[in-house]
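Sequence, please.
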C-alpha cells in the first residue's frame, strides 16, 4: 500500500508515525534503523526541492536527458523514453538525482520496474553531483542496478558494480590505451515486475541488495581480487609520473587507494535512457515507455544517530582515567573530543595511553601552530602532509576556544591493506557547526590528488592491539568538556547538538528591488526562525525545507542577522552568519578596477579589451577571470564590497565561484600559459551565481583589503574561478576598466 508523501531529511523521533517503516532486508544484523528520507511519489509532479535534473553532457547513446520526461502519476515516478529530436538527439530521456548527498552508514532502497521494452537502460545508481566535472566520466560511479531487457534470455540483464572513472588518466591497458578501474557482476532477473534494490553504503565499502538479499560486497572479483585496493589488476603499466602523483602518498605512505569508494559526496540518481546492443535492440516500441519507481527510502542505524556520549568529563585536570576500555584489537570506531583554549604558544599535547600509562598515540599542536598525530612509528604533521601544506590556516589562536575531535578506527583484521587509524581535526567553537562527520577514506580528487584527508586535518596509521584507558594532557592550555563515544554525533559540543541556522549571502540590487539571501537549517523539521533586518525583528514559522531564501525589498542597504532558531521539539539552536543587501545608488562610493581580463587555454589573444569577464570550469574550454584594484584609493572606515553584473548564464544554471587573492602582478601580458600557480592563489571567499542573467552578485572584501593595506600593499589582485556547478556552463560579467556599460565590475564603499 502506498502512503502519503513523507519527506524527512534528518532524524526522526522514535515516536514518529512512520517509525514502523523498515527496510526490506533479510537476516538484518543491524535491526534498529531510522527512516531519514522517503518519497512515495504520491503527488502530481516531481518535488524539485528534493530532486534535480541530471544533465548528461552530450548525447547518451542517442538520447537527450530533460526534466520534462520525469513525471509523477498513479503513485509512482515515471521516467519516459520518447522518440523526438531535441538538440540533435533521436530520443529524449530522463534522469534525476537527490539534492542531498548520501552520508556514510546509510541504507538506500528503491522499488522500481524497468521500461517494458528493449534498448533502454534503467538505472538506480550513485555518483558525485556536488562538484560537477567536465564529463560524467570524471567521477566515481556505483551502480546498484543498471538493467536492460535481454532478448536472448527473455530476462532482465542487470549490471551491478562500480567504475572509478577518475583513475582513467593514470592507467594503461594491454593496448597502451587509457582505461579505468571497474568491478561488478551480471544478474539475470524478472524484467516485468517491481523489484527492490538497495545499497548499504558504509565508510570504506558497501553491500548491494536485491529483494532484501545481499548480492555483492563491492570488492570481490574472481580474476582481480586486489583491484579494489590497488587500482591494478588488468593494467600492466602506469604512467610513471602521473600514476605516482595520483596514487602517490604525499608524505603519507601508509594510505592506500580504495576504488569503488571515495570521499566524494555521492548522490542517488534515477535514470532511463536508450542504450541499444544486439541483444537488446532499440525499436519504435520504446516510444513513450517508462521506468516506474514506487519509492525511494533512506535509512540510517540508530547507533550512528544517538547523541549521548559513552563518557563525559565536564572538568579536566592533567589526566583522565576513562571508565571504559577502548580496544584497538576489535573492529569499531571510537571518538574523543574536548574544548581546548591555549594560553600561550607552548605546545599542546593529548596522549592516549593504556592502563599502565604507555602511550598508544598522541595528538596536538606544536609551537609553530602545526597539528600532529604520533602513532607508533608514524608521525603525520600538517607541515609536510598534503593537502595541509597548501592551506593558509591558523589552527589554534591563543585565548580562543576550539573543539578538538579525535577519531580512532580500530581493525581486528591486520591485512596488507588494513591498519588502525587515528584522525584529528580542530574547529573554532564560535564558528559554523561542524555538522556531519567528514568522510574518512580518501580517493583521487578532480586534480588527480589522493591521500587527501577528506575533512580531517591530519591522519596517521599503525598496527596495534593496544587499549586506550588513560588520557594525559600537556601544555599551557585549559581543557574541558571531554567526551568519549562510539559515533561522531555523540561527542559534539552541546551548542552544536541541537538545531542550527546558517545565514549567508551578499546581494547587490537596484533601489526598490527584491533580493534574496540563503538560510541553511539543520535539526528536525519544522523550524521556527527569528531574524533582524537593520535591527527590526521578523519571524518565519513552520519551515519544512532545510534550505530557504529570505527575500526583502531593498529601499536602502540592508543588514540581516539571525537571532533564534527552534526545531520541531522546540529545542533552541545555534545561529551564525550574516548577510548583506547592498543598494546600488549614488549614495555609495565606487572604485573601478585598474585592470581586468580573462584567460583561456591555448588562446594567445589579450582578452582585456573585451566587454565581458568569462568563467567556465570545463578543462578543455576553461575561463578564469582576473581583476586588479588600486586599494590606495579606498577610503578608511568603509566596508568594501565587490560588485559583478552577470550578463550571460549560458545554461541558466547556478554556479559557485571562488574569489582568490593573487600575490603576483596582473597585466595585459597574462595568458593561460603564464598564469599564477595555484599555490600563489589564496581563497578569500566563495560567491554564488544564481540560475539567471541580468543580476548582480558580490562578496564583502573589507577584512582582506584592510589587512593588505596594513601590510603596505598598493593593489589587490583577485582571481575568480569555477568551483561548483555545471562545468560546461559559462557565466560572463561586464568588465570594469575602461568601462562603457552601466554595470561594470567595481568595489562599492558604504557605511553599512
Amino acid at each position: 500500500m502506498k502512503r502519503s508523501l513523507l519527506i524527512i531529511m534528518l532524524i526522526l523521533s522514535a515516536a514518529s508515525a512512520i517509525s514502523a517503516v523498515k527496510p526490506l532486508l533479510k537476516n538484518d544484523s543491524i535491526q534498529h534503523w531510522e527512516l531519514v528520507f522517503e518519497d512515495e511519489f504520491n503527488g502530481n509532479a516531481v518535488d524539485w526541492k528534493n530532486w534535480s535534473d541530471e544533465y548528461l553532457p552530450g548525447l547518451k547513446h542517442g538520447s537527450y536527458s530533460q526534466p520534462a520526461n520525469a513525471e509523477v502519476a498513479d503513485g509512482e515516478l515515471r521516467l519516459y523514453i520518447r522518440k523526438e529530436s531535441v538538440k540533435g538527439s533521436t530520443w529524449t530521456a530522463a534522469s534525476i538525482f537527490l539534492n542531498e548527498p548520501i552520508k556514510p552508514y546509510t541504507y538506500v532502497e528503491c522499488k522500481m520496474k524497468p521500461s517494458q521494452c528493449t534498448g533502454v537502460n534503467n538505472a538506480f545508481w550513485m555518483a558525485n553531483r556536488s562538484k560537477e566535472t567536465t564529463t560524467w566520466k570524471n567521477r566515481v560511479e556505483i551502480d546498484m542496478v543498471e538493467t536492460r531487457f535481454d532478448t536472448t534470455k527473455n530476462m532482465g540483464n542487470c549490471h551491478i558494480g562500480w567504475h572509478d572513472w577518475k583513475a582513467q588518466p593514470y592507467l594503461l591497458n594491454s593496448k597502451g590505451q587509457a582505461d579505468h578501474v571497474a568491478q561488478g557482476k551480471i544478474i539475470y532477473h524478472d524484467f516485468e515486475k517491481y523489484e527492490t534494490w538497495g545499497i548499504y553504503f558504509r565508510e570504506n565499502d558497501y553491500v548491494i541488495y536485491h529483494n532484501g538479499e545481499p548480492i555483492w560486497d563491492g570488492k570481490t572479483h574472481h580474476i582481480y581480487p586486489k583491484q579494489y585496493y590497488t587500482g591494478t589488476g588488468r593494467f600492466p603499466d602506469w604512467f610513471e609520473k602521473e600514476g605516482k602523483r595520483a596514487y602517490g602518498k604525499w608524505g603519507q605512505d601508509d594510505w592506500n587507494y580504495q576504488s569503488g569508494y571515495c570521499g566524494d559526496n555521492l548522490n542517488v540518481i534515477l535514470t532511463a535512457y536508450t542504450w541499444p546492443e544486439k541483444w537488446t535492440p532499440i525499436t519504435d516500441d520504446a516510444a513513450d515507455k517508462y521506468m516506474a519507481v514506487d519509492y525511494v527510502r533512506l535509512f540510517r542505524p540508530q547507533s550512528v544517530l544517538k547523541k549521548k556520549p559513552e563518557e563525559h568529563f565536564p572538568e579536566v585536570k592533567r589526566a583522565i582515567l576513562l571508565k571504559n576500555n577502548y580496544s584497538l584489537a576489535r573492529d569499531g570506531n571510537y571518538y574523543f573530543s574536548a574544548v581546548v583554549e591555549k594560553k600561550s604558544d607552548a605546545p599542546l599535547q593529548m596522549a592516549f595511553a593504556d592502563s599502565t600509562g604507555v602511550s598508544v598515540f598522541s595528538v596536538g599542536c606544536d609551537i609553530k601552530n602545526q597539528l600532529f598525530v604520533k602513532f607508533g612509528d608514524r608521525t603525520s604533521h600538517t607541515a609536510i602532509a598534503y593537502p595541509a601544506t597548501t592551506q593558509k590556516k591558523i589552527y589554534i589562536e591563543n585565548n580562543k576556544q576550539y573543539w578538538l575531535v579525535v577519531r580512532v578506527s580500530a581493525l581486528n583484521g591486520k591485512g596488507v591493506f588494513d591498519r588502525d587509524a587515528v584522525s584529528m581535526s580542530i574547529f573554532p567553537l564560535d564558528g559554523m557547526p561542524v555538522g556531519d562527520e567528514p568522510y574518512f577514506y580518501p580517493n583521487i580528487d578532480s586534480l588527480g590528488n589522493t591521500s587527501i584527508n577528506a575533512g580531517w586535518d591530519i591522519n596517521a596509521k599503525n598496527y596495534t592491539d593496544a587499549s586506550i584507558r588513560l588520557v594525559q594532557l600537556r601544555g599551557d592550555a585549559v581543557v574541558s568538556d571531554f567526551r568519549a563515544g562510539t559515533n561522531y554525533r555523540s561527542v559534539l559540543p552541546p551548542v552544536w547538538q541541537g538545531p542550527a541556522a546558517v545565514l549567508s549571502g551578499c546581494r547587490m540590487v537596484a533601489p526598490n528591488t527584491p533580493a534574496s539571501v540563503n538560510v541553511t537549517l539543520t535539526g528536525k523539521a519544522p523550524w521556527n526562525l527569528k531574524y533582524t533586518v537593520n535591527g527590526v525583528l521578523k519571524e518565519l514559522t513552520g519551515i519544512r525545507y532545510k534550505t530557504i531564501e529570505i527575500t526583502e525589498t531593498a529601499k536602502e542597504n540592508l543588514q540581516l542577522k539571525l537571532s533564534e532558531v527552534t526545531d520541531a521539539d522546540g529545542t533552541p539552536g545555534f545561529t551564525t552568519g550574516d548577510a548583506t543587501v547592498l543598494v546600488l545608488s549614488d549614495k555609495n562610493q565606487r572604485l573601478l578596477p585598474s585592470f581586468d581580463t580573462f584567460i583561456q587555454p591555448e588562446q594567445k589573444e589579450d582578452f582585456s579589451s573585451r566587454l565581458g569577464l568569462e568563467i567556465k570550469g570545463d578543462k578543455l574550454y576553461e575561463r578564469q577571470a582576473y581583476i586588479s584594484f588600486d586599494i590606495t584609493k579606498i577610503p578608511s572606515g568603509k566596508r568594501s564590497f565587490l560588485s559583478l553584473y552577470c550578463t550571460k548564464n549560458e545554461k541558466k544554471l547556478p554556479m559557485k565561484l571562488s574569489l582568490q587573492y593573487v600575490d603576483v602582478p596582473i597585466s595585459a601580458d597574462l595568458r593561460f600559459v603564464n598564469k599564477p600557480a595555484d599555490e600563489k592563489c589564496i581563497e578569500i571567499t566563495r560567491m554564488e551565481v544564481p540560475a539567471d542573467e541580468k543580476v548582480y552578485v558580490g562578496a564583502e572584501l573589507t577584512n582582506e583589503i584592510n589587512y593588505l593595506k596594513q601590510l603596505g600593499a598598493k593593489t589587490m589582485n583577485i582571481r575568480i574561478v569555477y568551483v561548483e556547478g555545471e562545468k560546461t556552463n559559462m557565466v560572463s560579467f561586464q568588465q570594469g576598466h575602461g568601462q562603457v556599460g552601466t554595470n561594470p565590475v567595481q568595489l562599492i564603499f558604504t557605511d553599512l
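The longest helix spans residues 702-710.
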